[in-house]
From TrEMBL:
Pfam hit, one: ABC_tran
GO molecular function: ATP binding
Record PANTHER family: ABC TRANSPORTER ATP-BINDING PROTEIN ALBC-RELATED
InterPro entries cross-referenced by the UniProt entry: AAA+_ATPase, ABC_transporter-like_ATP-bd, ABC_transporter-like_CS, ABC_Transporter_VariousFunc, P-loop_NTPase
Protein's UniProt name: ABC transporter ATP-binding protein
Entry keyword set: ATP-binding, Nucleotide-binding, Transport
Length: 302
């Protein structure tokens, strides 16, 4: 089935924040939601879960429309969860009690709480009071609560915040596992390269709408990518048509019409000048972010 949004519009007074948003997401899908701060990511989440009323538009889950009526909002909240804010945690409750509470509110069937705790490596501290938790431990707890709720649709805002690389990899892996249970998961995150590890598509919000959709399965054209100062670009000229120079340091060189030896040669040249690693592959979330929000810069000498 699907989560479908039609013509969603949200305004605060005379200011329109989102205008005529449309998308349709099938089951077993993770969507990354990307935009600079203040461009409507949280507003979109709040509108979909009805923390704020819809001015215009429809939200449809598995063919059922959910209006602003109280009975529809109540029914919607049985299908949807929003990633808890750490400020909502109770200091004197244990992590186990929080997970159990979310399980009991949303999921009437018996959910294997111990299995969730083991999968997220929380057994060493889950019985302790939350006031003793670090930022990363609290974040894993909030994630565990979402899994225990086990709703059809999950909205997750900055779920990797405060996690070390090991736990970022762990949460990434669990996200990929739970989506296979028919979930629709939308993740807003500033860790752009991490989104490429698990999201099926990336939505970029801009100009009050879903400005661009990056489908990772369809992005197949390969580029040589590296970081290079503007003054050094002259040392790798001429560059083929379609080359992008982003944020005055990120160069993306298309290889579509290059022979293998030409690709190898340009990578070797770039490695001598790049301030970071040089890679070969499709454009990723980071490159699209720079292209959409920062724009392309001229790289040829005037």
């Amino acid at each position: 089935m699907t989560l479908e949004v039609k013509d969603l519009t949200i305004s605060y007074g005379r200011k329109t924040v989102l205008k005529d948003i449309n998308f349709k997401i099938p089951d077993n899908t993770i969507i990354g939601l990307v935009a600079p701060n203040g461009t409507g990511k949280t507003t979109l989440f709040n509108a979909l879960i009805r923390f704020i009323p819809l001015e215009k538009g429809e939200v449809i889950i598995d063919g059922v429309k959910y209006s602003n009526a109280s009975k529809d909002i109540k029914a919607l909240h049985k299908k949807v969860t929003f990633f808890p804010d750490q400020a909502e945690l109770y200091d004197d409750f244990s992590g186990y009690e929080h997970i159990q509470m979310y399980r009991d509110i949303w999921n009437k069937k018996e959910r294997d709480i111990d299995g969730i705790i083991d999968r997220l490596n929380m057994s060493d501290y889950v019985m302790n009071k939350v006031k003793t938790y670090s930022l990363g431990m609290r974040q894993r707890l909030c994630f565990a609560m979402m899994i225990a709720a086990d709703t059809k649709v999950m909205f997750m805002d900055e779920i990797m915040n405060g996690l070390d690389p090991v736990n970022v990899e762990l949460v990434t892996s669990v996200l990929q596992e739970i989506k296979k249970d028919g979930k629709i998961i939308i993740v807003a995150s500033h860790l752009l390269e991490n989104l490429d590890d698990y999201a099926d598509e990336i939505y970029f919000l801009n100009h009050k709408d879903v400005y661009y959709t990056y489908d990772r399965k369809k992005e197949v054209d390969e580029y040589v990518k590296g970081y290079i100062k503007h003054d050094d670009v002259k040392d790798i000229l001429p560059l083929p048509e379609g080359t992008m120079y982003l944020a005055n340091n990120r160069v993306c060189i298309p290889t579509k019409d290059m022979k293998k030896e030409e690709v190898f040669h340009i990578m070797q040249r770039l490695r001598t000048l790049s301030s970071d690693s040089v890679s070969l592959g499709p454009l990723g979330t980071n490159e699209h972010y720079l292209r959409i929000y920062k724009g392309e810069q001229a790289y040829e000498e005037s």
